[in-house]
From TrEMBL:
The name this protein goes by in its record: PNKD metallo-beta-lactamase domain containing
Record-annotated Metallo-beta-lactamase domain positions: 103-265
Gene: PNKD
InterPro entries for the chain: Clx_II_MBL, Hydroxyacylglutathione_Hdrlase, Metallo-B-lactamas, RibonucZ/Hydroxyglut_hydro
NCBIfam families membership: GSH_gloB
Organism ancestry: Eukaryota, Metazoa, Chordata, Craniata, Vertebrata
């Protein structure tokens, strides 16, 4: 027997009304149930969905288009860059941090006596080219840390403008425009400057960092760390296990304590906020956070002030240094970076894992 339409509509409305009343009556239980259901769905789908998005970003043209869109947006949003950066000079070597995209840093390292330069991760070729012109220097080399478009997207554009420019990086990373593949501990010479390439996989399979030999030119050494290490944190492990990442972090911790760190992103405030949750009563961490928060309030690039401060304290006050791992503080520094790595790899359970480390 077929029911008339009006009866079916009435039954559906009544069922919906009953369900609604039940939800209102037991809203706390319903909210709890819905929350649990949502987190279960998220836990099951988060990883596969992320893997699909990551593959599309790194292996298809879609990634490049996304990077171009991000660059256009960033130029509109931050016509003068996301942060105010200042160059630093050491006996004939000038290091210029360049604020690009929404939170990336590229670097120009200039040998002022021969007016030649190397660029680290020049992701926005127009911005980098404008500074090369302003400084009146020739681009001799691009040191690319890894394949992600926000680091490598400008390689080909700059190479077109500077035909003799060499593009360095690791072959495992499929770096656009690569002309000179590098292995662990290879050297790159640009003018009087000598860079050592260090293989540090984990963030990507072919991630490299570049160490500028400072003592050779009467300056502290400088590490251009890409997405391996930032101020008080480290990069996500997209293409490596935690063991691989830790071994790459060990490469950094084996460097001299007065090495200056020039990271690939402005993540200092985020990293220190995370560290606040892990170590709420750590005074050194708190000092560092206050300094960074003050700088970010004025949209200053934290790299510069950190470095000046670190450099001064290393030279004049060999005391507990809130910026770099001073003797006795190495464990603390490590703890933050390791916890960050764990958090990045297991977003839903970082707190538990963090406290168990
Ligand atoms: Zn990256």
């Amino acid at each position: 027997m077929a029911f008339p339409d009006w009866m079916l509509s009435l039954a559906a409305t009544a069922s919906f009304f009953c369900f609604f009343c039940l939800c209102v009556r037991y809203r706390r239980a319903a909210r709890l149930f819905w929350g649990k259901l949502q987190s279960r769905i998220m836990a099951r789908t988060e990883k596969p969905l992320f893997r699909i998005a990551y593959t599309l970003y790194t292996r298809t043209k879609l990634g490049y288009l996304y990077y171009k869109m991000q660059m256009r947006k960033a130029r509109e949003h931050y016509p003068a860059g996301h942060s105010t950066c200042y160059p630093m000079e050491f006996s004939g070597i000038k290091i210029i941090p360049i604020s690009v995209l929404s939170d990336n840093y590229s670097y120009l390292i200039i040998d002022t006596s021969s007016s030649v330069a190397a660029a680290v991760d020049p992701a926005d070729p127009e911005t980098v080219q404008a500074i090369l012109k302003e400084e009146g220097v020739m681009l001799e080399a691009i040191l690319c840390t890894h394949k992600h478009w926000d680091h490598s997207g400008g390689n080909k554009g700059l190479k077109r403008l500077h035909g003799s420019c060499r593009v360095y990086g690791n072959a495992a990373d499929n770096i656009p425009g690569l002309t000179h593949p590098l292995s662990h501990k290879d050297s790159v010479v640009v003018g009087r400057m000598n860079f050592k390439a260090l293989f540090t996989p984990g963030h990507t399979v072919g991630h490299m960092i570049y160490l500028l030999d400072g003592p050779a030119v009467g300056a502290p050494s400088s590490l251009f760390s890409g997405d391996l290490v930032f101020l008080s944190g480290c990069g996500r492990m997209f293409e490596g296990s935690s063991t691989t990442m830790l071994s790459s972090l060990d490469t950094v911790s084996s460097l001299s304590d007065d090495t200056l760190l020039w990271p690939g992103h402005e993540y200092a405030e985020d990293n220190l906020l995370f560290a606040t949750k892990v170590e709420p009563h750590n005074a050194s961490r708190e000092n560092k956070y206050q300094l960074v928060a003050q700088q970010r309030g004025q949209k200053l690039c934290t790299v510069r002030k950190m470095h000046r401060h670190c450099y001064a304290s290393q030279v004049h006050h060999p005391i507990k240094d809130p910026c770099l791992p001073a003797p006795g503080e190495t464990r603390l520094y490590h703890l933050h970076t390791v916890l960050w790595a764990v958090k990045a790899s297991r977003p839903s359970s970082w707190l538990t894992l963090g406290f168990h480390l």
